[in-house]
């Protein structure tokens, strides 16, 4: 086992805290012309919706998916770091 840290735990903790501070998930992109025909594109959350002025449909899809993707990636980073640190 090495004393080298494979993961910046403080940074990962801050990322996880930012996720937890957001509206409850899951989030989904609601894109005009894709899954509805009137109104603007927005993000649907467990508690309602949020409009993003000036965001492209790709931006909206990215942000909406980040609510699910970031917690997954944080967990995976921690899992892999634990494996590396146990060697």
Q: Average the pLDDT over all residues and give the rounded result.
A: 91
Percent of residues in beta strands = 5-15%
Largest sheet: number of strands, sense, barrel closure? 3 strands, antiparallel
Number of helices: 2
**Spans of 5+ residues with little confidence (pLDDT < 50)?**
none
Widest β-sheet, arrangement of strands: 1-2-3
Descriptive notes:
This protein is 47% helix and 13% strand. Helix 1 (9-20) crosses helix 2 (57-85). It has one domain (9-85). The chain has two helices and three strands, in the order αβββα. The protein has a three-stranded antiparallel sheet with strand order 1-2-3, covered by helices on one side. The longest helix is centred in the C-terminal third of the chain and has 29 residues, at 57-85. The chain is elongated, with a radius of gyration of 17 Å. The mean pLDDT is 91. It is of the alpha+beta class and 87 residues long. The chain starts with 8 loop residues before the first helix and ends with a helix.
What's the short story on this structure?
This protein is of the alpha+beta class and 87 residues long.
Spell out the key features of this protein.
single chain; 87 residues; alpha+beta; 3-stranded antiparallel beta sheet; 3 strands; 47% helix
How are the secondary structure elements laid out?
Elements: H1 9-20, E1 28-30, E2 42-45, E3 48-51, H2 57-85
């Amino acid at each position: 086992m090495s004393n080298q840290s494979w993961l910046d735990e403080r940074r990962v903790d801050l990322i996880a805290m930012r996720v937890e501070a957001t509206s409850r998930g899951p989030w989904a992109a609601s894109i005009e012309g894709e899954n509805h025909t009137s109104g603007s594109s927005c993000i649907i959350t467990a508690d309602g919706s949020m409009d993003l002025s000036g965001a492209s449909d790709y931006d909206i899809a990215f942000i909406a998916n980040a609510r699910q993707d970031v917690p997954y990636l944080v967990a995976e980073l921690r899992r892999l770091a634990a494996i590396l640190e146990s060697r």
